[in-house]
Amino acid sequence: KTKFLLTQVTKGPLGTKGSKLTQQISLPGHYLVYIPSSLHIGVSKNITDEKERFRLKSIIEEIKPSTGGFIIRSEGAGKEKDIFKREIKYLVRLWEIINKKFETSAGVALLHRDVGLVFKTVRDYLNEDVTAFFIDSKDEHEDTLNFVEMVSPKFKEKIHLYKSKVPIFEMNPASEIRSGASNIEQQITNIQKQKIKLPSGGYIIIQEAETLCAIDVNSGKFTKAGSLDEIILRTNLESLYEIAAQLRLRNIGGIIVIDLIDMHRSSDRKKVFKLLLELVRKDKAKTEILPVTKLGLIEMTRQRKTESMVNFLSETCPYCEGSGQVLSRETMAIKIKKEILKLVTRGGEQPVRLIVHPDIAEVFDEEYTKKIENRINRKIVIEANSQVHREDYRIILGN
Hints:
The protein is an alpha/beta fold. It contains eleven helices and 17 strands. It starts with 7 loop residues before the first strand and ends with a strand.
């Protein structure tokens, strides 16, 4: 008899890697994560106060069911017993439904799907720090209100239906929402850029690859006064705010190497390391960071569950195949020259037409073209065409 296992996908397929599965099922809520197969009670590392950690564990010990363990999420800090009771009831009921479906299933089947994007955002990010949560779909708005009523009723007043004719991603906070966030479309466009400027005049370059992500920090045109060491420290500190934000915005995961501007003082390296630790605390993804090396490198890992935004928004270039480089103009000119000498017979009344991209046409100036004409004893007519790819060309003999 075929035996089926109850498994959970913890990480979707990424590139050539398949999905990651586990038999230790975990069901996340707003304040708790329920683990039916465990008896352990854990507390998020982001809750650092020992008294609060003890208080929270005591509450869960008192009200939890006889089976199953729980992890108290960072949102649970400061919450009281009634809130946890309500969420435990919801999570245990959800597990019972999943288990019943598994027992009655006749074969391979999807037993439960995690909540959608809107619900997941509400579950993971809606807290006291959020001023307003706007949704531009009437149906999603109503469903979200019902969901919030079940998991966090006190946040219902923060959920609003966005009714303006201006697309929600293009809203102006000054007139629509005084939240400080605007022009999301532009931010989405910026996500695809490698170079990001810093307010001081410096900049960072983010290069994602399949094996790791490299981030380079450069001082650029830093204009603030001070000694060289002070300028370097300020630039490195300033870059970390942008780097921490970009890691979350771009959903960059895996191994990350940050190449800071070299700092000679060990005290400066410690300041940079301490700031980065503080900045990643608000990150929902698990991170591990090693101290700054003498060469100014920071090695860190960030939990990767889904593909990065860059991979989601773009595809590999069919021309450069992801290398990010094409043949130089000079290389293309030499390649075309060899092709002409191989194809064109010496002499002939009809000129040779060469159709190339405008960038390549610039290399074929009068002097360069004349040298080829002397070799083949025929006239060459250069035609620049922007519709031709930079690494493509056409050699036409005769009419």
